[in-house]
Design a protein that fits this description.
This protein is of the alpha+beta class. About 45% of the residues lie in helices and about 15% in strands. Pfam families: HHH_5, RuvA_C, RuvA_N.
């Protein structure tokens, strides 16, 4: 399962960018091409969309943007193009509307009816309430941390303590969305060192599951 791809942006137009990864060009449709600079090296989170007529790859700046996109496309009546439009005003605004149950604001987005907006809230309100609570808790924790400003984005604090319960729950929800089984998820969570960065933990969990001999033949 591909979660992200790294490479150099060699071209872009209004709707997509082309990323060169070891001599292979990948065309990625993105939310806003203005956020990508030609010539820069980037890690871009990806999602492959496929139906009977076409296969398209979508690119995202961060993992939460990808998760929201994937969630939206599970709703009947929302395709990938509508999901991208929903993300144009920022994933933060989108998940706030969902968490607050504000279907009226959601229905103001292009191509989203009131019926679909209500369905989005029904399906995902509790999930995004939990995510926002976790983000707030992490921000407060980082604000009070003696390491603030001294440690990089993917730092791991040495500790004998297992993952924070809220972090573990969020990681579990994310891995379920990605299609992993409970046994695989439990194995990864029990093996990971403490870290508050969800994207880093997801990447590490996927590596652990992929490298575990007992899971290699499992879907």
């Amino acid at each position: 399962m591909e979660i992200y791809i790294t490479g150099k942006i060699v071209s872009k137009n209004k709707n997509y960018i082309i990323l060169d990864n070891n001599g292979v060009g990948h065309l990625l449709y993105v939310v806003n091409t203005d956020n990508f600079i030609k010539g820069e090296n980037r890690k871009i989170y990806i999602y492959h969309w496929e139906n009977d007529f076409q296969r398209t790859t979508y690119g995202f700046e961060n993992f939460r943007e990808r998760i929201l996109f994937e969630d939206l496309t599970t709703i009947s009546g929302i395709g990938p193009k509508t999901a991208l439009v929903f993300l144009t005003e920022g994933w933060e605004k989108g998940i706030n509307y969902i968490a607050e149950g504000d279907w009226e604001e959601i229905s103001k987005y292009p191509y989203i009816s009131q019926k679909i907006a209500r369905q989005i809230v029904f399906e995902f309100q509790n999930k995004y309430k939990k995510i926002l609570l976790n983000l707030k808790t992490k921000d407060e924790k980082n604000e009070n941390s003696p390491f603030k400003g001294e440690i990089g984005e993917y730092s791991t604090f040495e500790s004998t303590v297992k993952l924070d319960k809220k972090v573990a729950n969020e990681l579990e929800d994310t891995l379920k969305i990605l299609g992993f089984k409970k046994k695989q998820i439990d194995y990864a969570i029990s093996s990971l060192e403490p870290n508050d960065n969800l994207e880093f933990l997801v990447e590490e969990a996927i590596k652990l599951i992929s490298n575990a001999r007992e899971f290699r033949n499992q879907a």
